[in-house]
Structure formats: structure tokens, C-alpha cells
Amino acid sequence: IPAGEAMACDVPVISTTGGALPEVVGDAGILVPPADPGALAKAITGLLDNPDRAEKLGFEGYKRVRKLFTWKKAAEKTV
User: Fold this and answer.
1) CATH number of residue 60's parent domain
2) Whole-angstrom Cα distance, residue 18 to residue 32?
3) What is the dihedral of CA 36, 17, 69, 79, to 10 degrees?
């Protein structure tokens, strides 16, 4: 849920490929292998060095979460 919350706030997300996070983040964030500090550091510095990309990923995440993770969508999947 924290990844979705960050995306809803227009914040770029860097996450691991473990668990359900890739399903939430999709192509609207950066996914790195679990237990790979080098990949995580590269992703973080990549966004810090490229604020335009960070802004774009933040906006793409916002759009993704508003499209896929709404109460209406949750109800449709439940029924």
C-alpha cells in the first residue's frame, strides 16, 4: 500500500521486483531486484540526477493509481 500511496501523491516510486509490488508500480516506477543495494543506489541517483524523469514517473504513477486502484475497481473485482 505505501507504493500506491506515494503514487497517489505524485511521488516517483522505486521498488523491488519482489511480492505484489510490480503489479502496483507497473511501468510507472523503477523496479530493482531484491537485495541488490547497487541497483537501488543506481535507481535513486538516476532520479536525483534527472528531475525531469522523476517528475514524469511521479505523474505516470499518479495516473496509474487513479485509473487502476479506485474503490469502484475494488468493488468490481469483489463482485
Assistant:
1) 3.40.50.2000
2) 9
3) -150
Rounded to whole angstroms, how far apart are CA atoms 66 and 71? 10
The predicted model scores a pTM of 0.87
Task: With a cut of 90, say whether residue 1 has pLDDT above it.
Answer: no
Which range marks the domain in which residue 37 is found?
2-78
As for how many domains the chain has, the answer is 1
| CB hemisphere CA count around 3 (13 angstroms) | 23
Cell numbers found for residue 66: 487513479
For residue 63, give the C-alpha cell: 495516473
Q: How far apart are CA 69 and CA 26, in angstroms?
A: 12
Q: How far is CA 15 from the centre of its chain?
A: 7
